[in-house]
């Protein structure tokens, strides 16, 4: 009887341990991001698709000054930037380079 009670106690403890852990939000961008940046100052931009560690799409631009900024994926500026890059499907070496990261299929 004591063994059965101990096993039930261990099972409850294990269930609490597994289900009681918080998921950590590992998004690179805090907040919604900028609606626009100076296009001439962009060196590259990255499209990071939602993943288990971050449930939102992130657009990160690296400026020519090496500073990284987050863009608002819903802004017209960002959507136009993505549309143009997808249309061309090229990586520009001297102007703007595009890096697609994460999975593209859902």
The number of helical elements comes to 2
**Beginning-to-end CA distance, first to last residue:** 49 Å
Enumerate the strands of the largest sheet in spatial order, edge to edge or round the barrel. 3-2-1-4
Q: What pattern of helices and strands is seen along the backbone?
A: HEEEHE
> What do we call the CATH topology of the domain at 39-101?
OB fold (Dihydrolipoamide Acetyltransferase, E2P)
Keywords: Chemotaxis, Cytokine, Disulfide bond, Secreted, Signal
Family: Belongs to the intercrine alpha (chemokine CxC) family.
Domain Chemokine interleukin-8-like: 24-85
Main location: secreted
Overview of the structural elements:
- The chain has a four-stranded mixed sheet, covered by helices on one side.
- It has a domain at 39-101: OB fold (Dihydrolipoamide Acetyltransferase, E2P) (Beta Barrel).
- It is an alpha+beta fold and 106 residues long.
- The protein contains two helices and four strands; from the N terminus they run αβββαβ.
- The longest helix has 18 residues, at 2-19.
- It starts with a helix and ends in a 5-residue tail after the last strand.
- Residues 18-22, 92-97 and 101-106 have low confidence and may be disordered.
- The chain is 29% helix and 21% strand.
Summarize this structure as a short list of keywords or feature phrases.
single chain, 106 residues, alpha+beta, OB fold (Dihydrolipoamide Acetyltransferase, E2P), 2 helices, secreted, chemotaxis, chemokine activity
Compact overview of the structure:
The protein has 106 residues and is of the alpha+beta class. Helices cover 29% and strands 21% of the residues.
């Amino acid at each position: 009887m004591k063994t059965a009670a101990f096993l039930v106690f261990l099972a409850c403890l294990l269930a609490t341990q597994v289900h009681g852990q918080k998921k950590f939000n590992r998004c690179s961008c805090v907040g919604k991001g900028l609606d626009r940046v100076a296009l001439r100052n962009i060196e590259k931009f990255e499209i990071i698709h939602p993943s288990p560690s971050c449930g939102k799409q992130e657009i990160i631009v690296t400026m020519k000054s090496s500073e990284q900024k987050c863009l608002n994926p819903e802004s017209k500026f960002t959507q136009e930037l993505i549309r143009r890059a997808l249309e061309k499907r090229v990586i520009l070496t001297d102007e703007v380079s595009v890096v697609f990261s994460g999975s593209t299929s859902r």
